Amino acid sequence: MMFDPVYFGAGALNFGLAFLAAGGFALMFKAAYQWITPHNEGALIREGNIAAAIMLGGALIGYVIPLASALTQTHSLPEFVSWALLAGVIQIATFWLVRRIVLRDLSARIERGEVASAVYMMMISIAVGIINAACMTA
Predict the structure, then answer these.
(1) Residue of 51, 94, 112, 121 with fewest CB within 10 Å of its CB?
(2) Which pTM does this prediction carry?
(3) H/E element holding 1?
(4) Cα 42 vs. chain centroid, distance in angstroms?
């Protein structure tokens, strides 16, 4: 098979658009997630709080897993946007439910740097993200 610059150009354009859309949604999710958490992840991470970094990182991974699935399963930008928004709502709802039902003092634990609570929340976020991604393929 020979290299076809026209075919590559179209593919590269699609790649670029998808990458920008996914990157933009990841940044918007990060901002929304940080906005809804009672603690300030940015300040805590700058202070060296490993728990805050683990929890935020887990939430981002839990979000981008279904985001990646949506990229492979959707056929239009509006469809991708719908799945991206739903994935974000599910991740934020997961944090809210854990904080309200399981670990009511989660934010205080993160502020104190309790890694066990952060790892617990990270694993829940990733597990929910994997389930979310799998449901997008059904």
Answers:
(1) 112
(2) 0.88
(3) none
(4) 16
